Each structure stands twice: as C-alpha cells, then as structure tokens.
Amino acid sequence: MCRAMNAKYLFAVWIVNILKVQAIIPGIPSAINNHPFQVALLSNDKFIGGGVIIERNIVLSDINAYNQLLLQYLWPSTPVKLTIRAGSSNNNEGGQVVNVARTVLVKIPENEWNDLSVSILLLENNLTFSDTIKKIGLAKELPSSLPLNCSISGWGYTRNDYVNLPIQLQVGRAMLVEDRNCNVTEPNNYLCLTGADACIGDSGGPLVCGGELVGLASDLQHCGTTTFTGSYNKIPLLYDRIMDVVKGIKG
Ligand SMILES: *[C@@H]1O[C@H](CO)[C@@H](O)[C@H](O)[C@H]1NC(C)=O
Ligand SMILES: *[C@@H]1O[C@H](CO)[C@@H](O)[C@H](O)[C@H]1NC(C)=O
Ligand SMILES: *[C@@H]1O[C@H](CO)[C@@H](O)[C@H](O)[C@H]1NC(C)=O
C-alpha cells in the first residue's frame, strides 16, 4: 500500500500471491437490478474493475488500485480510453456505455503506509436512471452498531487461483465488525470485515450496508481470506472531500 511501490514491484507481489492459493471467495451470480448503482469500468473496451454511480454523471472508482494496474499489465493498451458500462449484469454487453471525460483523484496522503484514495469519474453524458441504473448515497459516518450485514459485488475473480473472471456480476455477504477484530495497531483507513472477500477485478466496487455506500474496494492483495483488512476503504473518511469535488462538478 506504500505509495512508493511501483507497478513492477506490485506485479512481483501479485505473482507471489498467486503461488499462495488458499480459499475460494464465496459469491453468487446476481442481477444488476439488485445492485443498480454498480458499473463496470472498461479500458479500451476491456473490463478492468468496478465503479459506483453517485450522480447521473459521476461514478466513484479506484483507477489507481493495485489490481487495475495489474490488469493493465495483462492487457496492455495505449492510449487508454476509459468508459463505464451501467445497467447490465454482464460486463461485456448491454446496458449504457458512457465515456469518462475526466478523473479526479481524492486522496488522504497523511499515512504513507496506509493511504486512502478514490477516483471520481466525470462522465461525458448523463446516465438515464431506471430499474437497472440508480445512484447510491454515501455514508457520512461509519455504522455504529456492529456487527452489521453488508453486501459486496463485482466481476472480480471468484477464486484466488486467478483463473476465471466471471462475465456475470457476483455478489457476496460481508459482515462489518469492529476494527480490533483485524488486529490493527495503527489508525485504520480500511474496514474490518469477515465473510465474502473481494479479489482482483472487484476494485472500485461497492460495499453497501443499510442501503448506503460504506466502503469502496481498493487494495486487493489478499483474496479469499475470511477475516481481512485492507480491501475496502472507509468512505466516511473521504466523504467531505468527495462531496467538495461533486459540488464543484455539479456547479
Ligand atoms: C446532464 O443533466 C443536467 C441536468 O440534470 C444538465 O444540466 C446537463 O446539461 C446534462 N448533461 C449532458 C451532457 O447532457
Ligand atoms: C446476517 O444475515 C444472515 C442471513 O440473512 C443472518 O442469518 C444473520 O443473522 C445476519 N446477521 C446479523 C448480525 O444481522
Ligand atoms: C489476532 O492476533 C491474535 C493473537 O496474535 C491471533 O490469534 C489472531 O488470529 C489474530 N487475528 C487476525 C484476524 O489476524
């Protein structure tokens, strides 16, 4: 998570992680109308990760995330044209595909060892909201009553053997628990969760509790662990910064 890490170093770490195959990542196929705020992020029409609709023309993602860097390595292509696909359960067809006009990185840089960032993607055209395309509100505060049932979704690897990327959206249940369960000794920018785990390809995707976006998949080095930290950032820590940018964009 150190910002000084470069892509080649991360690639080496990823290869090492592949060799440590452990567990499956429980998820089940789902339909987009159950998660209408979820989008697929495409780079030159190839799937690279997830995103979350927060306004008609604004999507949150994490285009700097570890996994997406690696997917760029696997499918190198320049120049990069970013688009999002909204309103489709499948990441390779259907729905509305809209160009990303501009990206704004929102970052809390104070902790080099545990930095926190999201990418705000400004779309070239407004999405048309429907049963399959909706925005979701951001959590302003962390839920206080834990444990709490939450859901995660994405088109990332369904096993940490990194073989199969599903075409259809997968959904899993994750339980949000107290930070101390993750044995964190420093202030933690990431949510402490048990249950389903996100994997490479899920980055930028949502963790939803009580109908609000509480976390966004970010650093995904450890797939398929049942208790983990470092995968879903805490949206409330970034709330004010994100809203400042959103207000600027909306005018
Ligand atoms: C998007 O919708 C807003 C109103 O909601 C409108 O002002 C704006 O012009 C629209 N943008 C585009 C690119 O159509
Ligand atoms: C979470 O959801 C599952 C399945 O619906 C349920 O069995 C469990 O009791 C719930 N846990 C909490 C803490 O709400
Ligand atoms: C936390 O630390 C204790 C004691 O070292 C250990 O038994 C436990 O497995 C750790 N839990 C996690 C989630 O790492």
Set down the secondary structure blueprint.
Blueprint: H1 7-19, E1 28-29, E2 38-43, E3 46-55, E4 58-61, H2 66-74, E5 82-86, E6 96-108, E7 116-123, E8 148-154, E9 170-176, E10 193-195, E11 206-209, E12 212-217, E13 227-228, E14 232-234, H3 235-250
Antiparallel strand pairs: 1-9, 2-3, 2-5, 3-4, 4-7, 5-6, 6-7, 8-9, 8-11, 9-10, 10-13, 11-12, 12-14
Helix pairs in contact: 1-2
Residues 182-183, 227 line the site of one 2-acetamido-2-deoxy-beta-D-glucopyranose.
Word description of this protein:
The strands form two sheets. Strands 1, 8, 9, 10, 11, 12, 13 and 14 form an eight-stranded antiparallel β-sheet that branches. The protein has three helices and 14 strands. The chain has helices at residues 7-19, 66-74, 235-250; strands spanning 28-29, 38-43, 46-55, 58-61, 82-86, 96-108, 116-123, 148-154, 170-176, 193-195, 206-209, 212-217, 227-228, 232-234. The termini are far apart. Helix 1 (7-19) packs across helix 2 (66-74). A hairpin with a 2-residue loop joins strand 3 and strand 4. Residues 1-24 have low confidence and may be disordered. The protein has two domains: 36-135 and 238-250, Trypsin-like serine proteases (Thrombin, subunit H), CATH 2.40.10; 148-236, Trypsin-like serine proteases (Thrombin, subunit H), CATH 2.40.10.10. With 251 residues, the chain is an alpha+beta fold. One 2-acetamido-2-deoxy-beta-D-glucopyranose binds at residues 56-57, 125-126. One 2-acetamido-2-deoxy-beta-D-glucopyranose binds next to loops.
